[in-house]
Design a protein that fits this description.
The structure is a single chain. It contains twelve helices and 13 strands. The protein has 312 residues and is α/β, with parallel strands linked by helices. The chain has one domain: Luciferase-like domain (TIM Barrel, Alpha-Beta Barrel). Strands 1-3-5-6-9-10-11-13 form an eight-stranded parallel β-barrel, surrounded by six helices. It has a two-stranded antiparallel sheet with strand order 2-4. β10, α7 and β11 form a beta-alpha-beta unit. α11 packs across α12.
Length: 312
């Protein structure tokens, strides 16, 4: 099982962006030293808070990544597919062929309004963008005819070093999970889903893989989990008490108890073993307490006590 980290890039408008970027850089340096498998960043737009945009932030942090794989997430309906294909191919070159893309549909009405990309068309825009990027990475003088994009004899260079460049899909609803089974190299599972619910949804996903004749083709299963770790379970629970008081990212009471990982290294290892038994191959953690000192504490516990248990 590979263990990576999805770093928080959303902060209050009162925070100094340079200081925040310095903190992210130090976290990535520590992750590289501890042997994390991957670094992931999310995607969001037209925000009132500070939100570090994924591509420039990932490009900066790539200089400190060590052997980690870069896993940026993009909400495809907001992007021109030719431009994004060029940019991601270049990121793969920068990373030495160690880039994977998480592709999301997203739900952000104000961004759709600002970008003039009608929300009712987001599924078709997502699908065409996904198809076009793969096409342009594979061949020169490519042509495409779709609902939103039409072009003839288009080439982009450099091509990605990775051939093919892995394309994952984050999905929750049935149609989106089926889409992941049909075209993606892996399905990325929501951090809020409880283990019991994951097992239920995996039956649906694996049935779709079988339907599309891809059961032997797709070997990766990616699970996102949010967590806070300390040297003892008691310390972690005390530090995370604020999460239970004010709520956390829309998690209900059951999700707070069953999905959010709060405790020591042993707590985390136990949760990972269950996910591994389900077939998870790559875990993307996100720090539930994301202040730099708190995030670094969780990174240290993972690096010193958890990752060595799953290495090799």
């Amino acid at each position: 099982m590979q263990i990576g980290m999805s770093l928080t890039t959303s902060y209050g408008i009162e925070r100094d962006p340079k200081t925040l970027m310095n903190g992210l850089t130090e976290q990535v340096k520590a992750m590289a030293e501890f042997g994390f498998a991957s670094l992931s960043l999310g995607d969001h737009h037209v925000t009132r808070n500070n939100y570090f945009q994924v591509l420039p932030t990932m490009s900066h942090l790539s200089a400190y990544k060590g052997d980690m794989r870069l896993i940026p997430l993009f909400l495809l309906p907001f992007y021109n597919p030719i431009l994004l294909a060029e940019q991601l191919a270049m990121l793969d070159v920068i990373s030495g062929g160690k880039t994977t893309v998480i592709n999301g549909l997203g739900h952000q009405p104000e961004a759709h309004d600002a970008f003039e990309t009608p929300q009712r068309l987001r599924v078709s825009r997502f699908t065409e963008t996904f198809e076009i990027m793969r096409l342009l990475w594979e061949r020169d003088e490519a042509s495409y005819s779709g609902r939103h994009y039409n072009f003839t004899d288009v080439s982009i260079n450099p091509k990605p070093i990775s051939q093919p460049l892995p394309m994952w899909i984050g999905a929750n609803a049935d149609p989106a999970v089926r889409r992941a089974a049909r075209i993606a190299d892996a399905w990325v599972i929501s951090p809020g889903w409880t283990p019991d619910y994951i097992e239920e949804r995996l039956r649906f996903y694996r049935g779709a893989l079988e339907e599309f004749g891809r059961s032997d083709e797709v070997s990766e299963l990616v699970v996102r989990r949010d967590l806070h770790l300390s040297q003892t379970r008691e310390a972690a629970m005390n530090e995370a008490e604020v999460l239970y008081e004010r709520g956390y990212r829309g998690f209900g009471e059951r999700e707070m108890q069953k999905s959010l990982i709060v405790g020591d290294a042993a707590t985390c290892i136990e949760a990972l073993k269950r996910l591994g038994d389900m077939g998870a191959t790559h875990i993307l953690f996100r720090c539930a307490l994301d202040e730099p000192e708190q995030a670094m504490q969780t990174i240290h516990v993972l690096g010193e006590h958890v990752i060595p248990r799953f290495r090799g």
